[in-house]
């Protein structure tokens, strides 16, 4: 049975309650979880999917409520200033977000939220990693993703989707999948007056539905624009992305309250500015802001994506350590971060704009033991052509390559700038096999 239509704000409160109840009284619950980088795309995918599915679940749904989980502790919101900036457009607050803090503590998770009482939908990844993966990977019931298919999710997912397609943004695929149901909701919300609690007349109910639709559309639009550089990146933008943008914008334009103030480029600029405004963050926070890890053959790989150059991070490291030896301080910071995460192989991928206004990428790889060092060397040889790796020199003219018993390091310009972590991570993982 569909629940009466609600705002996103109302839905998140309901979902948080449902999760609490499921834990306390051992009830069945469906969780929609994004990947561990907990970036904008993962967050909006899980919110949009959970919202639309809860408002109109399939008849054989595992539970009536789908709970969107943002895969990070709540406090990490402070290193994602783009979240609160976007939330204002969707009329929600950071406190509405459901995060790892809302799940039972790791030490008791398995007994308090029994695997058999759960079903997991993966959005923006297709293999459940980390602690959650250890407990719940058998309970994955569906996936919508735009990364390389790791083949972990069964082919038959019943009433839940199994969609893995290369697109700029995963939110485009979620939009596409939900579109039909969403349109039904928009119409039935107005016709049946399901939202009439919001107003006294049918037209007021309609206005509420239009507003809620537009707020949800804003949420999805932000990720697609960020992931495709406002649909301007030829390498990243696919038909799925441009169609989804068209669809979401129509939802915003259908709401008189919000349509007048909408401008795609300005909206993109606002979110992008918030996202790249990381000057006030500590280097450690910059490294963990968009971080992912994988296990391969008993070795752990970690990759940080950073929206500023290596020079920016070196300077930051120097300031924090109060030293002139910028690179030494930077290396120390990378090593301590790697140690904290327990990774054997660690990579930092940067994006920045050159003084000539050119989009550019740097790639740094650090390896900390013999196995990881041979993997890193293999990667350097095998991936060099595809990624067009070119020697990198710092402002001091040094290449910063290093090899001894303790660690191996190499830094490159990645001249094939179309390849993000979506491609570099599989290449690194391959070299570890
Ligand atoms: Mn994504």
Automatic annotation (TrEMBL):
One Gene Ontology molecular-function label: exopolyphosphatase activity
Domain DHHA2, residue spans: 268-432
InterPro entries: DDH_dom, DHH_sf, DHHA2, DHHA2_dom_sf
Classification via Pfam families: DHH, DHHA2
Signal peptide segment: none
GO cellular component: cytoplasm
Residue stretches in coiled coil: none
SUPFAM superfamilies membership: DHH phosphoesterases
Superkingdom of this protein's organism: Eukaryota
SMART domains cross-referenced by the UniProt entry: DHHA2 (SM01131)
Required co-factors: Mn(2+)
Keywords associated with the record: Hydrolase, Manganese, Metal-binding
Protein name (record): Exopolyphosphatase-like protein
Lineage of producing organism: Eukaryota, Fungi, Dikarya, Ascomycota, Pezizomycotina
């Amino acid at each position: 049975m569909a629940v009466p239509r609600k705002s996103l704000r109302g839905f998140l409160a309901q979902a948080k309650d449902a999760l609490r109840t499921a834990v306390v009284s051992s009830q069945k619950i469906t969780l929609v979880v994004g990947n561990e980088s907990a970036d904008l795309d993962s967050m909006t995918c899980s919110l949009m999917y959970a919202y639309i599915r809860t408002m109109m679940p399939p008849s054989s749904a595992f539970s009536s409520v789908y709970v969107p989980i943002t895969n990070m502790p709540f406090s990490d919101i402070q290193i994602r200033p783009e979240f609160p900036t976007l939330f204002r457009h969707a009329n929600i607050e950071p406190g509405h977000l459901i995060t790892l803090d809302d799940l039972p503590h790791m030490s008791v998770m398995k007994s308090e939220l029994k695997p058999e009482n759960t079903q997991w939908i993966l959005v923006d990844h297709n293999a459940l990693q980390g602690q959650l993966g250890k407990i719940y990977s058998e309970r994955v019931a569906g996936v919508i993703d735009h990364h390389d298919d790791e083949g972990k999710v069964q082919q038959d997912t019943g009433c839940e989707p199994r969609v893995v397609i290369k697109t700029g943004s995963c939110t485009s695929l979620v939009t596409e999948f939900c579109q039909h149901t969403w349109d039904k909701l928009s119409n039935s919300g107005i016709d049946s007056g399901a939202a009439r609690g919001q107003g006294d007349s049918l037209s007021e109910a309609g206005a509420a539905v239009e507003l809620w639709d537009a707020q949800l559309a804003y949420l999805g639009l932000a990720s697609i624009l960020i992931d495709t550089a406002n649909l301007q990146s030829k390498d990243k933008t696919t038909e799925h992305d441009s169609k989804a943008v068209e669809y979401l914008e129509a939802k915003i334009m259908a709401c008189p309250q919000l349509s007048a103030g909408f401008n795609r480029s300005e909206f993109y600029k606002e979110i992008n500015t918030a996202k790249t405004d990381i000057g006030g963050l500590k280097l450690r926070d910059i490294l963990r802001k968009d971080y992912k890890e994988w296990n391969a053959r008993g070795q752990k790989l970690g990759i940080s994506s950073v929206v500023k150059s290596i020079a920016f991070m070196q300077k930051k490291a120097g300031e924090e350590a109060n030293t002139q030896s910028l690179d030494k301080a930077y290396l120390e910071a990378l090593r301590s971060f790697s140690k904290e995460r327990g990774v054997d192989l660690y990579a930092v991928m940067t994006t920045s704009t050159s003084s000539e206004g050119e989009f550019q990428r740097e790639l740094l790889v650090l390896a900390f033991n013999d196995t990881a060092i041979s993997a890193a060397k293999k990667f350097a040889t095998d991936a060099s052509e595809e990624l067009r790796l070119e020697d990198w020199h710092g402002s001091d003219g040094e290449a910063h390559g290093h090899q001894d018993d303790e660690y191996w390091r190499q830094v490159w310009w990645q001249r094939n700038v179309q390849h993000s972590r979506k491609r570099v991570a599989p290449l690194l993982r391959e070299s570890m096999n």
